[in-house]
Amino acid sequence: MPDREERFRVMLDVVEAAVGPSPRVLDLACGTGSISRRLFARLPQASSVAVDMDPTLMAIAKGSFDGDRRITFVTADLSEPGWLDELSAEPFDAVLTATALHWMQPDPLARLYADLAKLVRPDGVFVNADHMPDPGTPMLNAIEETIQRGYEAKARAAGAVDWEEWWALVAADPKLADEYAASRAILAEHIQGVTHPVGWHTAKLTEAGFPESGVAWRSITDAVVVAIR
Ligand SMILES: C[S@@+](CC[C@H](N)C(=O)[O-])C[C@H]1O[C@@H](n2cnc3c(N)ncnc32)[C@H](O)[C@@H]1O
After folding, report:
1. pLDDT tens by residue, 20-70
2. Core-most of 43, 84, 91, 124, by most CB within 10 Å?
3. What is the rounded distance in angstroms from the CA atom of residue 172 to the CA atom of residue 204?
4. Is 160 inside a domain boundary?
């Protein structure tokens, strides 16, 4: 993803401008903690609660932040209605997520948005950087696909691995054998998610209780959607 860092920059521009230099952040579907790492690099006074359901990615995240008191980890499945019970009642200045919510089915995602409206403090922000293609622009989407494949081929030639190859490396690491087995079991149950165009997200965020939402960045098929609580 050639513009991945640009998305994170835009996300953190929004956070800093909206809620200041020491936000309490929820890193939603945190994976290995990519957002929290960039958050702390830019805003060292920030704190983060990082939530994910994947044992392997959480193990890597916990290891890489070992000893950093600014971050805490919560294991929860965001598709389950009770996931909020795993968090304290303290509100967040910002909820941030990237390349993750397209894994969720529409109803659980709409319910998640309603939960987030309860978690974000008034004037706080929710920022979602994700794949949000518009089914009404198939030719444009095909052009974006071609552009992405071109970047991927260059990255691959330079030695980068893709998501599947990265998991194959994890599978070959005996130190992560238990976590990998647990991840496989969870993924086996996981239903493939669906994407929605930007307008779906902004409409659901309005319904959920975010009075204002819009786009902070976009390419043909991807976007950074921001909602103000
Ligand atoms: C592609 S990774 C992105 C991680 C990180 N945000 C990043 O950009 O590097 C997607 C993450 O979403 C998490 N995820 C997907 N569905 C989830 C759910 N229902 N509950 C919790 N985490 C979920 C996966 O476990 C994975 O860590």
Report:
1. 999 999 999 999 999 999 999 999 999 999 999 999 999 999 999 999 999
2. 124
3. 41
4. no
